[in-house]
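Box 3.1 A note on notation
Throughout this textbook, protein chains are presented in two layers. The first layer is the amino acid sequence; the second is a token string describing backbone geometry. Keep the layers aligned when reading.
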Amino acid sequence: MKLIEMKHVYKTYYAGKIPTHALSNVSLDIEEGEIVVILGPSGGGKTTLLNCLSGLDTVTKGTITYQGKNITKMSDRGVTNFRKEHLGFIFQTYNLLEHLNVYENILVGAKLGKTKADVNDIIKTVGLTKHKHKYMHELSGGEQQRVSIARALAKKPDVMFCDEPTGALDEVTGKKVLQSLIEANETYGTTMLIVTHNPGIAAIGDRVIRMNSGEIASQTRNKKRTKPKDISWG
């Protein structure tokens, strides 16, 4: 079932009167429950694509709809409320609350959503049960990233936007984080969009989008997903 439709989207910046198209006539559909990996060189448009799809950035031209609801015509407040109720975010920086433990950080995420998730179930899904009462300074980088995944999942988002979620992690830790994303998708049916510079990560997805110069250079489908532990790294 089609979840997101992006039609003829442009994102243009100006240096004086000279335009730069960060996105140029991009059209894209995202299916409910799929994992989409977005690859491309630095400056190729992959993060701009993610930001426009998620409503973090406005488009210059074109439309983006979620199950028929046009977010490009919403007010700033409307888009903010839409993100709060329907979307989850994971970034390279974890943005966790240092004075709260694992359970409490995730509970903060649960309170943002209309439908409250079971925090203990989510902690189990991302493999943090034994760390439930630890504070952030007691966790490794990979464990903190899994807390940020759990916090985003706690409000039961329709879509999770992941911008370089393993960018600051080593191979072993990065693969554990990716496995947490796979398990969240399989357990909760959460649609995942993952931006990465690491081509090996493409194998974990259902579909791979390659961006270059603000355009979709190619789209390919994997015959089946590869488990994170089995992918090549870097």
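The chain has a mean pLDDT of 93. The two ends are 33 Å apart (CA to CA).
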